[in-house]
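Data availability (excerpt). The following record was deposited with the supplementary files.
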Amino acid sequence: METGSPRDTDAPGTEPDGTTPDRDGPDRPEPGIPDGPEPDGTMWKGLPPGLLRMRRMLLVLWLGLLAAGTALLLGLLAGPAWAAFALLPLALTAWGWVLLGRNWRSWRYAERADDLLISRGVLWHTVTVVPYGRMQLVEVTSGPVERHFGLASVQLHTAAAATDATVPGLHPAEAERLRDRLTELGEARSAGL
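Predicted structure:
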C-alpha cells in the first residue's frame, strides 16, 4: 500500500542509499526517522503529499496578499522607497516553505496491536500513544479547503483530554479505513476491560 511518504524505501523517488530527493534541499537521509520497520516491528506511515501542497498553497496565498497589500499601502501613503518593506512577507514565505516541508516529513503514525502511535515535531519531537481501549470517539473531519485537495483528518477522543490526537491530511478512503479499524479495535479492547 502506497502511503505517499518519502520515508518508504520502496516508494518512487527513493534512492538506493535511503535518501529521498528533497525539493527543499540536497538529497539526505531524514534525521531520526528509520527506513522501513523498526526492530520491534512497528511500521510507520507518513502523510500524503497533498497535505504539504495544501499548506504551502495557503502560505503563498496569505503572505502574497500581505506583501501586495503592504507594497500598495506603503507605496501610496509613504512613497515608493517604503514599498520595499513588502519584501519581508516574501522572505517569510521562503522560510515558511522550507519549515512546512520539514514539519510534513516529521508527521507519521503506526498501528500496533494495542495502541496507535502518532509521531510529530522537528525541534520538539512528540510521540503520542493512544491505547485502543481508551478511545471513546473516532471521527473523520474535512473542511472546505481539505475537501478541495482530497484530504481528511482523523480525530481521536479519549477519556483523558491530554491524550486526544489527530492524524491530519489523509486520503478520505484511508481516513475512513483508519476510523473503522480504530473503532473496531476500540470496541474489542473496551469490552475486555
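Summary of structural features: The helical segments are 49-77, 87-106, 144-148, 172-191.
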